[in-house]
Design goal:
single chain; disordered N terminus; seven-stranded antiparallel β-sheet; about 800 residues; about 40% strand; mainly beta
Length: about 800
Amino acid sequence: MYQRIAHDKAIARFDPLVRAESQRNSVPDKTAEGAKRRPTLRVNAALKLTLLFFLALVLPFAAVSLAQTGDITVQFNGGGADNKVYIGEENTLQIFITNADGPLFGISLGFSFTSAVPGFSWKTPYGNKPAGPKYIQEWGDAVGAMDGVLKFTYTSLPDMFLIGGAATPPGDGGLPLPAHAVSTLCWTLILIMPEGPGEYIDGFCIDNIFFPPAGSWRFDQGVGVGYYPPTFQGNGNTSTEIPDAPPVCFDIVYRNSFDIAFYGWPRRVDYNEPVFFTGMNTVSVDSWDWDFGDGTTHGTVQNPIHSYSSTGVYTVTLVATLTGGGTRIVVRTDYIHVNPVKADFTASPRYGSLDMNPTGLLVQFTDASTGSPTDWYWDFGDPSSGGDNISTLPSPTHTYGNPGVYTVQLTASNPGSSDTKIYLNCVRVDAVAMPDLQVSCYGPGRVRRGFHKELDIVVTNVGSADAIGGILTLNLSVLPTGVTFDGSVPPPKEPKPYPAMVTWDLPSITWDPTQYNFDDYLISADLYVDSLVDVGTGILTVASVSQVAGEVIVANNMCSDSEIVRAAIDPNDKSVQPPGCGSQRAIWGTERLNYVIQFENKPSATADAFYVLVVDTLDPNLDWGTLQLGPSSKDNVLTFDFDPVSGEMIWLFDGYELPPNVTPPEGEGYVSYSISPKPGLAEGALIKNLAHIRFDYESWLAAPATGPLQLSISNQDLNHNGIIDVCEFICGDANGDATVDISDVVSLIAYIFSGGPAPSPLLAGDANCDGGVDISDAVYLISYIFSGGPAPCTGC
């Protein structure tokens, strides 16, 4: 499989290098048989002198291509004794190149990766990442010197990296890289291995990929091609030209076997941005001593926060003094990258249609990067445009000639740093312009008796034309007794006392689902839950938006939020709407998911929380291009970042000052987002999410605390009643075992009085069909099971 993929990729990505090689003269045949075939040459004296002069120029370079003294070295985590791959953390894979003999005109490398551990992934590389036309900036004896210009292309698959490039033509100001005998770090890639039980025995393996016509690890030196064997640090060499040579494997180590370790996040920051360090220990520690590598005061707490004021790459050292005596020292070399270049850009217009732009939509891209970049590489996400899909101008234009939604990427760099901005769904082109309203419901307010609950309703236009004349309606008739609508911001059109339906006239909304930062229309509604409302009562809220002129897609014009009244709550939690039904928490494959991550500064806290950090990683079965950021509890001090390579989302409240939650909900907060599953997921496909929350110097908290929040995809409706088959239930079957017996009574009592699991769906516990789930349902079931009372109802 690797050979076939590599062949296709090599032809597509390294074509300039392949063409250059095919045009060069081959090395003369020196065999005896070859000598017999060669004709005798008769030359005069002048021609002899000319040939001698020519050979004097050519032979040194010919010798270069045959000497094959170049080298490629691959290592993990600094090489040496620590040349291992660790479970559950970032692993640094570094690629070094040495080319001692002559100028380097081109190169092609191919790596394939296999592992006994499923699901490994690659994050955005740090340092000299091979993205776009990238220079080997440290080439030369002086750090940062660049004696030549060798532009590289790069592509990646889940289990493969392909790297290749060629010197730019002299007319473009480029020169080949000179001979260089120093082993030079050219690429740094970050590997993430998923956590799992125990220690893995099988290793993480790397193999070199065979490229036609004669092998991988190819160095082009202008007059020939050398095939240099790679050195895998601590593991010897593999064959350079035999495609079935055995791969080289590195040991995989489960990190929990170490008694002291640490993480830092984020590892790539701008000036004065906080880095959150976390010390981890499986043995008792008396004291912590952190050296952040920048000469400042050491940290002495287990989970310090540190900011760097100068550009550089910093090594971090942690010394832990153990309670029983002795110390542990953990060193992470070149761990934190402080990088003044931050890639960013704007695009205008970001949407349009071909009926209004017959020659294509012309988009102006404007560089907004900070840190004085000197080089730019744009990928407009439009491969059908051929060579016009790429630009190296600071602020180029591009014409999109076909309908579609386009992701745009910019890599901005200078001699000291580089950064990449990937803008998902940056440009949308429709054949015919049309609006498309989408409504999302978020229930961040915890539902408790005697308290108010907030409901946020967000309307977004994800079409390509303005949405004019929409009306938003909130259905109050489905609220249970004791739960009332207490107003909203902005207020509805209807005055108090509010009728069964309240409405808002929507303003004109333009299309702008700018990935996660988007313009929208937000309504914050307030629901009051009376203190007499029974614990376990379900609260359903339904909102819908009317179809506007020109709108064709209306499936996303409605949303709902379903929650239950609780006496006790988990202060740090994560929830999703729709919540899914049955033990599998099944949802339709087309349903949009609205997530809320909640946090609380506990009443027992002794100080306000200044920093609040929330980290969540999207499941691969979600369509990351549909991610939209929802409202939060304090937007004015919030920054958000999303890595479209790893799916990691980060919310940082800098200066929240969240007080202890003595008088709820003053010490409570939340963040939210919405996203859609990937289209066409198989029946039973899982979607898992687990968020982590941290206050200031405290340890990380998982949300939910019980493990990942899990949903499953289902589209089976064999009886065609509009309900997923696994979501159909029996009234009174509180534990979901398809029967009604005493075990359901036990399950209900545990849920109502002891915080046990809720019936799924909640109405499955409503045995008497009174619209709620409480002790009366348990009494009803006891009467039915033991006293011949009426059977559970059928219309719950």
